[in-house]
C-alpha cells in the first residue's frame, strides 16, 4: 500500500523572535519558563524538521535573565508580559500535565509547540487558563487522547492546528469547535479522530480560510451550508468516508487555492466550475467512484497550479501542443487510470516535476527521449506501471541507463518492456520492474546502487548468474527475483547488519547450497527458495534467525533426514514452512515441531492494522520518506490446489511436508501445533494410525494425509475440527467407519478413495456394524458447533492494483531512521 502525504508542517511563527527594547519580563513569567525548561529534555530525534534546534537551551537565570530576550519568547512592548511562545521544532521531549508552569503564562496570545515529542501526553485541561490565546499549534508533537472540553473556553482562537497527533475529538466534537471558535481562520485537524459527519454548523465560521480535516474519519455528505464559507482558500478532506456528489457550489468559492477531496466515497463527475476556479494551486480529485470528463486545458492555464492528482477521468487535453509561459510548473502530477494512450505532450514543459505518476493507463510503445529532460534534476518518483510500454527510445545500446539524477522511486512494473534491464541512477531507493519481458543479465552496474532498499525484478526473462555484489547492497530490504531464469549459485556474502526482510528467488534455476551467510540476515522474515535446483540438507541453521516467519524450500533437491533443531529455541517466529517436493527421508521432524512455538498458539496475536504479512520498506532520504509496504506473496498447496497467495494473512500457520520420502508414524506431538490452518503430509511413506491428537488443531482448515501407508480407523475425534474444509485420506490402508456428521458430511468420495477397508457415507460400501459415529466422543472437549462462519476468507485475496496511488511521503528533509520510525508509529501505518 502506498500513500502520499503532502505535509506543510513547517510553518514558522515568524513574529516570535524578539527585538527586546524596553520592558523587562516579569519574574513569575521567567521562572515559569525556566520551570518549563526544567521539565523537558532535549532529544534530537524529537523533531522532524532538519533545521530544528534546542531553542530553550539558551534560556538561563543568570545575569541576563530578561526572558523577553530569550529565544522563542515574545513580550508585549507595553506591559512586558509574555504574549508569544514559539517552541516549534525545538527537539523537546517529555510529558505535560496540568501542573506545568506553561499555564502560568496567562497573557499568551500565540503558542506554538509543533514538531516536538510530548510522549503521548494528554492535552492538559489547564489549557483553559491561556484564555487570550488566538493562535495554538500543537501539531505533530505526540499529544494523545481525547481533546479536553476546556479547550473550548479559548474563545479568541483564530488559528488552531492539532494535526498529526493521535488525538480524538468526540463528545464534544467538531460541532463545539464551530460553536465556540467563531473567529477561526485556520482549522487543521488532520489525522485527529473525529468519526462524525461534517456538522452544518461549520458554516458558523465565516472567517474560515483554511480547513484541513483529512484522515479524520468523517462520513456522510458535505452539508450545503458550507457554501457560506466564502473566504475558504484551502479545503482539504482527503481520506475520509464522505459520500454524495462533489458539491457544485465549491466552484463558487472563488478564493480556493487548494482542494483535496481524494480517497472518499464521492460519486459522479467533477463540476466543471471547480476546474475553472481562478486561483487553484493544488487539485486532488481521486476516488473510486468518480468519473466523467475533466477539462485539463482549463486546469493547465492556471499559472500557480503545482499539484494535480486525478484518476479515473476522461481528460480533454489542450488542443494544441504549444505551451507558452503561462503553463504552470507542476511539482506533482498524477493522471491515473485515465485511458491515456500516449505521454501527454504538455509534459515537455515540465522541468520541475518531483513526482510523476501515469500508472494504470494505456500508454503504448516507446518511452520517448524527450521524457528524460523532464525533471532531470528534480524528479524523485516516477510511476509508469500498468501500461503497455515496450522499450526506451533513446537506447540503441543496452542496457539503458536512466538519467534522472535524484530519482528515488521508479516503478515500471506490469508493462511489456523488452531488452536489457534498465539501470536506475545511484540515488534509487525503490526499483520495481516486475512483470515485463526483460532479457539478459543483471549488469554489474547494479552494484553501484548503494541506497537501494527495494529491488523487484520478478516475472521477467532475465538470466545468467547473479552478480556476487548483489548481496553487498547493504540497504536492501526486499529482494525479489522470482520467476526468471537465473542460473548458478545464490551468492553467499551477506553482511552483518543486513536489513533484508524478504528474499524471493523462487522459480529460477539456481543450484548449489543455501549460502550459510544468510544467517547474517537477522531481520529476515520471509525466505522463498522454491522451484530451483538447490541441493542441500535441511538448513536448520536458519533457526537462529529471530524473525523468520515463512520458509519455502519446495521443489528443490533438498535431501537426507531433517534431524533435530540445534536448539529448542530455534525458529521462534516460524509460521509457514513448505518443504514439499524434495527428497527428505526419515521421520517427520518432531523435534522441530516442539520448537516451532509460533505454531503452538491457536490465536496468534496480530496487529489489527496489518492483517497481512508485509515488509515495511519505507525509506528515508534527504528529500522525503517513501512510505511503502511490500505484501508478501507465496505459492502453496491449499486444500489440494496450488494457490497463489497475493497476500498472506498475518496469522496463517501452515506446514507442507508433502511429496518427500518421510516414513514412520505420525506422532501425537503434532497435536501441539494448535495454530495450524493447513497441514499437508501427503505422498510420503508414513505408516501407523492417524493420531487422534489432531483433534486439538481447532483452527485446521485443510488436512491432507493422502498417498501414504496409514492404517487403522479415521479417529472420530476429528469431528471436533469445525473449521475443516478439506480432508483427504485417500490412497492409504485405512479401514473402518468414516466419521459422520459435522464437517465430514461435506467431504466427497475423493477424500477416501484407495482405502479398501473404509465404509460408510459417502462411500457406497456400508459398514457391517451399524455403529457409525455421528457425534464426537463425549469425553472430548466440547466442539465449537458447526454454525461458525467459515474462516476461509483468507483463501485467495486478489491483488488490488488500486488506482495507482503515488507512493511516497514528502516531509521536509533529512530524516533519520529513528525519526522515520516515530513518524510511522504515529501516522504511517494506519491506512
Ligand atoms: C514517557 O511516558 C512513559 C509512559 O507514560 C513514562 O514512563 C516516561 O517516564 C515518560 N517519559 C518522560 C520523559 O516523561
Ligand atoms: C506533573 O508533572 C511533573 C513533572 O513534570 C510531576 O512532578 C508532577 O507530579 C505531575 N503532576 C501530576 C498531577 O501528575
Ligand atoms: C486578555 O486580553 C484582554 C484584552 O484583549 C485583557 O483585558 C485581559 O487582561 C487579558 N487577559 C489575560 C489573562 O491576559
Ligand atoms: C461553547 O459554546 C456553547 C454554545 O455557544 C456554550 O453553551 C458553551 O458554554 C461553550 N463552551 C465553552 C467551554 O465555552
Ligand atoms: C448562509 O448565508 C445566507 C446568506 O448569506 C444565510 O441566509 C444563511 O442563513 C447562511 N447559512 C448558514 C448555515 O449560516
Ligand atoms: C454559484 O454562482 C453562480 C453565479 O454567481 C450562481 O448562478 C449559482 O447559483 C451559484 N451556485 C450555488 C450553488 O450557489
Ligand atoms: C477506459 O476504457 C475502459 C474500457 O474501454 C472504459 O470502461 C473506461 O470507462 C474508460 N475510462 C475512462 C476514464 O475513460
Ligand atoms: C493547432 O496548431 C496548428 C499548427 O501548429 C494549426 O494549424 C491549428 O490551426 C491549431 N489549431 C487550433 C485549434 O488552434
Ligand atoms: C557475516 O558477515 C560478516 C561480515 O559482515 C562476515 O565476516 C561473516 O563471515 C558473515 N557470516 C557468515 C556466516 O557468512
Ligand atoms: C486466545 O484467545 C483467548 C480468548 O479469546 C485469550 O484469553 C487468550 O489470551 C488468547 N491467547 C493468545 C496467545 O492470544
Ligand atoms: C511491485 O509492483 C507490483 C505491482 O505492479 C506489486 O505487486 C509489488 O508488490 C511491487 N513490489 C514491491 C517490492 O513493492
Ligand atoms: C542532513 O544532516 C546532516 C547532519 O545531520 C548534514 O550534514 C546534511 O547536510 C543534512 N542534509 C540535508 C539535505 O539537510
TrEMBL record:
Principal place of residence: membrane
Membrane topology: Single-pass type I membrane protein
InterPro entries, per the entry: Leu-rich_rpt (IPR001611), Leu-rich_rpt_typical-subtyp (IPR003591), LRR_dom_sf (IPR032675), LRR_N_plant-typ (IPR013210), RLP23-like (IPR046956)
Top-level taxon: Eukaryota
Keyword annotations from UniProtKB, A to Z: Cell membrane, Glycoprotein, Leucine-rich repeat, Membrane, Receptor, Repeat, Signal, Transmembrane, Transmembrane helix
Cellular component, GO, one term: plasma membrane
Segment forming the signal sequence: 1-18
Pfam families: LRR_1, LRR_8, LRRNT_2
Compartments (UniProt record): Cell membrane
Keyword match 4Fe-4S: no
Residues covered by the Leucine-rich repeat-containing N-terminal plant-type domain: 29-76
Homology family: Belongs to the RLP family.
Name of the molecule in the record: Leucine-rich repeat-containing N-terminal plant-type domain-containing protein
Lineage, opening ranks: Eukaryota, Viridiplantae, Streptophyta, Embryophyta, Tracheophyta
